[in-house]
Structures are given as structure tokens and as C-alpha cells.
Design a protein that fits this description.
Elements lengths: L1 H23 L7 H7 L6 H13 L3 E4 L2 E4 L4 H27 L5 E6 L14 E7 L4 H14 L13 E8 L15 H8 L2 E5 L3 H8 L1 H4 L22 H11 L3 H11 L2 H4 L4
Parallel strand pairs: 4-5
Antiparallel strand pairs: 1-2, 3-4, 3-6
Helix pairs in contact: 1-3, 5-10
């Protein structure tokens, strides 16, 4: 029994260090709550606390201001603080453009993506949006969002990507299960990318439906808990049946033609990413 306990503690300790080391690649020290959330091993808050204390005393990891990081990587604390400020600015921009996108009636969900860690966006980077559309309206949704972004001149350009809107990921509501686009079940970058999607616009509980459709991904994080989103980062849902029916009347029948048009002008490297 004692040997089992020692083995269990060693596994937990190794999992903690591996988690901290992964986020160290992105210069992102973690809080204890974040370690619990991202850990790929079922455990408790108290167990993590005990192992963290031992790891700090052994100088395997370090701690300052409630943040844990690999020994010798204290500079990551200031990097995380900087990126928080960058992210705050970028979220404001994402929300500004998404307030316009929400009037495209087929959009169900808009998330800020590519957040490996909360508020961890680079200063010079663009802003990736993950968008879920209504069934059979993916290509119309993509067409109008790209059109709006182009008209507003907010799309990334060569040597000009800072704070631009990258419309990088579209799915429709019948394609919410993302299992088939993971390289494999051990694709941890994809898993971390997924659980850090930050919803800023969600219609009809679409974000909850997305999480439910991807329970197998969440199984990689047995201590996972939903991230609380500030009301300041939420856009009120817009839904009007009469308004949507008019869009359907004028544009609904164009889905197939719009798809053909977009595929014709789409770069080959993007076509290969379509499931």
C-alpha cells in the first residue's frame, strides 16, 4: 500500500512538472488552479498543493506571486503580465468586430482562439476567431464575415498582422465534434487550444453544445472546470426571426454557389485543411 502511494505521488509530481514545462514553452507561468485544470491526471487541489511545496523546496520549480515556473525562468512572470495587457487590447478589438458579425444571422458562436493559457496573446500577433455557423450555412457565413472584415480593412496582410482579425476556423453546428481534425489523441497542443477557446458571442447555448460535443477531448483533463468569462467580454446575442427570414429569402439559396466560388479562389494550403 505504501509503495502504491509513493508511485501515485511520483506520477502526480511528474505530471505537474510536465504541465508547467509545456506552458513554459509559451512563457506562461501557472497558478495552482491552472495547474489543476490543465493536469492530465485525476487529483485534488490539496494533493497538488503538497507536491508543489515539495517541488519548490527541491528547487525543481520556483514560485513567486502565486505563479509557478521552471527554475531559472522568473522572467516569464513579467512576460505573462505584458501579455495580459496585450490580450486585453486584442479582446476589445475582437469584440468590436464581433458586434458587427453578430448581425450575420447564421453565426451561432464566436470565440477568440489560439490562447495557450488565459490572456496569452502576443503583442505583434493577429486575433484568431473560431466561428460556428447554423447547419448548411457555413459558406455563406464565411463569405459575409470575410467580406465585412475586408471592407473594414481588418484582415491580416503581409508585414501587417498586428491586431488584425484572422478568420481562421469555421465549422457548422452539425460538425461540432472536432475529433477528426486532431492529429491523434495525444495531440496536446490541440487539446490545450480547444479548452482555452474564449467565447465572446454565444447564441442558444452554442458554447455549451460545443463542449458537450467534444467530451472525449475534455477527458484528457479530468480536473477540468469551465473558465469563467467576464461580462465585459461577452456580447449580447442578437436573434430576430423576421430579420433572419429576410436574409434566408435573399441569400439562403446561394449556399452551394458561394461554396463553389470560395473554393475556386481559396489557396491550396487552405483547401487541404477542409475536413
Amino acid at each position: 500500500m505504501q509503495e502504491d502511494k509513493v508511485t501515485e505521488n511520483l506520477e502526480l509530481r511528474r505530471a505537474i512538472v510536465e504541465t508547467i514545462a509545456f506552458f513554459d514553452l509559451f512563457e506562461y507561468p501557472l497558478t495552482q488552479n491552472e495547474i489543476l485544470k490543465y493536469l492530465q491526471l485525476k487529483t485534488t487541489y490539496l494533493a497538488i498543493f503538497k507536491e508543489l511545496e515539495l517541488l519548490v523546496n527541491e528547487k525543481t520549480i520556483n514560485r513567486e506571486g502565486g505563479l509557478y515556473f521552471l527554475e531559472g525562468r522568473i522572467a516569464n512572470i513579467s512576460e505573462r503580465k505584458k501579455k495580459y495587457n496585450y490580450s486585453a487590447r486584442k479582446f476589445k478589438i475582437a469584440m468590436k468586430i464581433s458586434r458587427i458579425f453578430r448581425f450575420i444571422p447564421w453565426i451561432q458562436l464566436i470565440c477568440v482562439a489560439n490562447l495557450i493559457g488565459r490572456d496569452n496573446l502576443r503583442e505583434e500577433g493577429d486575433i484568431d476567431l473560431f466561428i460556428v455557423s447554423d447547419k448548411n450555412r457555413l459558406w455563406l457565413t464565411r463569405f459575409f464575415t470575410v467580406l465585412v472584415a475586408k471592407l473594414l480593412n481588418v484582415r491580416p496582410q503581409i508585414n501587417n498582422t498586428k491586431d488584425k482579425i484572422c478568420l481562421s476556423f469555421f465549422i457548422s453546428e452539425e460538425q461540432m465534434n472536432l475529433e477528426n481534425i486532431r492529429d491523434n489523441k495525444m495531440d496536446m497542443y490541440f487539446n490545450y487550444w480547444f479548452i482555452n477557446l474564449a467565447p465572446i458571442y454565444s447564441r442558444d447555448n452554442s458554447f455549451s453544445e460545443l463542449m458537450k460535443a467534444n467530451e472525449k477531448i475534455l477527458e484528457s483533463f479530468p480536473n477540468y472546470f469551465p473558465q469563467k468569462i467576464s461580462d465585459k467580454r461577452k456580447i449580447k446575442s442578437f436573434h430576430n426571426d423576421f430579420y433572419k427570414k429576410n436574409w434566408e429569402l435573399f441569400f439562403g439559396g446561394l449556399e452551394k454557389n458561394i461554396k463553389k466560388f470560395q473554393l475556386k479562389i481559396m489557396p491550396e494550403n487552405l483547401k487541404k485543411l477542409i475536413p
